[in-house]
Design goal:
Elements: E1 2-11, E2 14-20, H1 36-48, E3 67-76, E4 79-88, E5 91-96, E6 99-101, H2 104-107, H3 122-125, H4 128-142, H5 144-168, H6 176-214, H7 237-243
Antiparallel strand pairs: 1-2, 1-3, 3-4, 4-5, 5-6
Helix pairs in contact: 4-5, 5-6, 6-7
The chain binds adenosine-5'-diphosphate and magnesium ion (MG).
Magnesium ion binds at residues 36-37.
């Protein structure tokens, strides 16, 4: 698979530009602040429907414009595929081969990208939140189910927090709904945790020999997921659920 070309409309500093790529290594050269990183970012956005360096989609839209559009032609084994993503203040719309995708989670993963940028140092130096976000992005690219579970988790968490507030202010007194929400939240959390463990195990398998090579056999890379409920990676789903 490779990206044949990408067209940026009102994206960052680009008004309308088509950039063709080769099926090999592509080098982008330019003066400072000409938009090199913006091009790299746009490839990531086309793949993930969000930026690697900002969670505020508005920043991606060219100043004083209503929307930004990214279009890509991707050569896949089975032929070319077109991707379109429109970002406006009202939200995002994605198309795969000109067909609108009802859910972004269906669109994400149409092309898989690995971004390596200076910001990645935060993976080691930054807060746990940065690491969780990285893991979520990687798994999300290959598992729409995971994306779905994550957003379910966020929704239930919000509902539960709201309910807790209502209990506190005595607007609600029934504890049975709280139990239901707690159980639902735990189920999602356990599923997410299991997937994260599986992913990190794979990452360990791939990264360890590479790190060995870089350190000339002097170091062994070990990736460990310190989770809040303190279960080990070989626990099964029901154990995780119980712990939650
Ligand atoms: N939303 C935006 N609208 C217009 N210009 C933008 C927007 N966001 C960033 N820019 C401009 O993009 C340029 C930086 O591009 P960047 O890709 O970071 O440069 P570099 O080539 O150094 O990597 C700056 O000139 C900045 O003002
Ligand atoms: Mg740059």
């Amino acid at each position: 698979m490779y990206i044949k070309e990408i067209t940026l409309t009102n994206y960052r500093n680009y008004t309308k530009t088509t950039i063709p790529f080769e099926n090999k290594v592509n080098v982008i050269l330019g003066e400072n602040a000409q938009g090199k990183t913006n091009v790299m970012e746009s490839i990531f956005v086309l793949s993930m429907a969000k930026s690697h360096r900002t969670s505020n989609d508005k920043e991606l839209i060219k100043w004083d414009c209503e929307y930004a559009k990214l279009s890509g032609i991707v050569e896949k084994h089975r032929g070319p595929v077109t991707l379109d993503l429109v970002i406006s203040t009202k939200g995002k719309k994605a198309k795969y081969n000109h067909i609108e995708q009802k859910k972004l989670s269906q669109y994400i993963g149409s092309i898989n990208t690995v971004m390596f940028a200076p910001e990645d140092l935060n993976l080691v130096k930054g807060s746990p939140q940065v690491r969780r976000k990285f893991i979520d992005m990687e798994i999300g690219q290959v598992s729409p189910v995971y994306m779905h579970d994550l957003s379910r988790y966020q929704k239930i968490l919000q509902q539960r927090n709201q309910y807790l507030k209502q209990l506190q202010t005595k607007k609600q007194t029934d504890l049975s709904l709280l139990d239901v929400l707690t159980l639902q939240l735990s189920e999602m959390a356990a599923k997410i945790l299991k997937k994260r463990f599986d992913f990190l195990q794979l990452l360990q398998q791939w990264a360890e020999p590479i790190h060995k090579g870089i350190s000339r056999d002097l170091e062994t890379l070990k990736i460990e997921y310190k989770n809040s409920i303190d279960v080990s990676e070989d626990a099964d789903l029901s154990k995780m659920l119980e712990a939650y």
